[in-house]
Design a protein that fits this description.
Layout lengths: L17 H28 L5 H8 L8 E2 L2 E2 L3 H12 L3 H21 L2 H13 L4 E4 L15 E5 L2 E12 L6 E8 L2 E8 L5 E5 L11 E12 L10 H36 L1 E2 L2 E2 L4 H30 L4 H25 L11 H11 L6 H13 L6
Parallel strand pairs: 3-6
Antiparallel strand pairs: 1-2, 4-5, 5-9, 6-7, 8-9, 10-11
Length: about 400
């Protein structure tokens, strides 16, 4: 009989195609050898060097799920596996790929015109140009429709005023996709970050996603030409469609974080002796480890099923909400349980657990809070709108 892999208990990865499995192995090897040895230092400093984006671009991971313009046209499953392997090192790495590919590049690819795609996407795919996605505001997180950022016509130009917050890579991006209210509703604009009136300030005193650059953006009479508007993005639904792509990556990524925490707990309890025996030999330790395996397996099966629906073209946003909600919850509970198994040693960067646990607090919130996804699911099963 085939032995059970304690890190893939139901052999979910057997569902991967050969190309997806090869990509998994490539990204896992790169992440383990090149990123993992440095991530603690980045986390302590609160930084993520820009050269990482170039390396990810060289591997074909930026906008990999898109077609043309230097993008790989990979399957949703392949993209999910990449997010999983990167987040097994740190959520900030997955966030970089999500924001670049699922938000900024997807917005341009899906809602831009051919000139905009040609101008930005090839350089973004290689990491030579970085993008950010300006939707969230200080007064409107879960309710983006109430945004206060405005764009008004002035001759052949648009003039933008307002502010955005918690925008990944706002200080190092070359182009910002800015969502603003106009007389005709919410529209998206491509704003080169060197444009007069655009300024970004890094949010420094944060305790989660430290190996990721979070920023506040201020727009003061930012003047852009009429060609800056994304012509095929009428309304807030266009922005939400990009968020769904990012949520799909997140629900895969959280599995990587959970897997790393479980692996750390399994190794630690196997080596640590108390009362003359290994911690792993105690019933309570095995109970916690079994709990982790169950949660990770359920999350993996959920992600794989959603990838199958995505491939079939039948995946609905509400189903993505279920996956993001369930998998983020499972991952943080696995991290919390793993931390208890490492005792006080679990509080240090000598082990990855506390870093992942802290990151997952942010992952619970980004791309939709628990409450928002619960309401999305509730609406889909009752037919009753409960947001207002």
């Amino acid at each position: 009989m085939t032995a059970i892999d304690p890190h893939d208990y139901l052999a979910v990865d057997d569902e991967l195609e050969d190309s997806e499995r090869d990509l998994r192995d490539t990204v896992r090897a790169y992440a383990t050898t090149e990123l993992l040895p440095q991530v603690n230092e980045w986390y302590e400093r609160g930084e993520l060097p820009r050269h990482v984006a170039k390396e990810l671009g060289a591997l074909g991971l930026l906008g990999m799920q898109l077609t043309g313009y230097g993008c790989a046209g990979a399957s949703g499953t392949a993209y999910g596996v990449v997010c999983r392997e990167l987040e097994a090192v740190d959520s900030g790495l997955r966030s970089l790929v999500s924001v670049q590919g699922s938000l900024a590049m997807t917005a341009i690819h899906r809602w831009g015109d051919e000139e905009q795609r040609q101008e930005w996407l090839p350089r973004m795919a290689t990491g030579d140009a970085l993008g950010c996605f300006g939707l969230t505001e200080p007064s409107s997180g879960s309710d983006p429709g109430s945004m206060r950022t405005t764009a008004r016509r002035d001759g052949d130009d648009w003039v933008l005023n307002g502010s955005k917050t918690w925008i990944t890579n706002g200080t190092i991006a070359d182009v910002a996709v800015i969502w603003a209210g106009t007389e005709d509703g919410i529209r998206a604009f491509l704003v080169p970050t060197g444009t007069a009136g655009y300024s970004a300030t890094e949010i420094r005193q944060k305790l989660s996603l430290r190996a990721s650059i979070s920023t506040d953006i201020l727009l003061e009479d930012v003047r852009v030409p009429s060609s800056a508007i994304l012509p095929h993005a009428p309304g807030l639904g266009a922005a939400l469609s990009c968020l769904n792509e990012a949520r799909f990556g997140i629900l895969w990524g959280t599995i990587g974080a959970a897997r790393a925490c479980y692996a750390a707990a399994l190794e630690y309890t196997g080596n640590r002796e108390q009362f003359g025996r290994s911690l792993a030999s105690f019933q309570l330790s095995q109970r916690k480890l079994a709990y982790m395996v169950v949660e990770i397996t359920h999350a993996s099966m959920t992600a794989m099923r959603l990838a199958q629906l995505k491939k079939a073209g039948t995946l609905r946003p509400e189903q993505i909400s279920l996956g993001k909600l369930a998998n983020a919850r499972s991952a943080i509970e696995v991290a919390r349980s793993a931390r208890t198994m490492l005792g006080a040693n679990g509080l240090t960067l000598a082990h990855p657990v506390m870093r992942h646990m802290s990151n997952l607090e942010a992952v619970l919130t980004v791309e939709g809070t628990e409450e928002i996804h619960e309401l999305v699911i509730g609406r889909s099963i009752t037919g009753v709108q409960a947001f207002r």
